[in-house]
User: What shape does this take?
Amino acid sequence: MGIIKSTQYECDRCFRRASTSDFAGGSNAGQGKLTLKGHRGSRSFQGDWGGANFDIDMLLCFSCCDDLMKILRSCKSRSPADITAEEGG
Assistant: This one.
């Protein structure tokens, strides 16, 4: 008897699992990697600053990549006037 190792890939958003990195299923296949790095801070009432760094790495299946691309495209197509109107300005 032998030991067979297999690798499982899991989407970090929807938790879909696949034995191949392209998450192939039916007529759809593909995957993406989202990397977001930065920092966020704020000022207290006493005037001192504090904050935190963030570093996000996510493996996404083709379906979640499609969803993310729709969101990013909608953000890119907005103008400063749209944002001002949403904020009530």
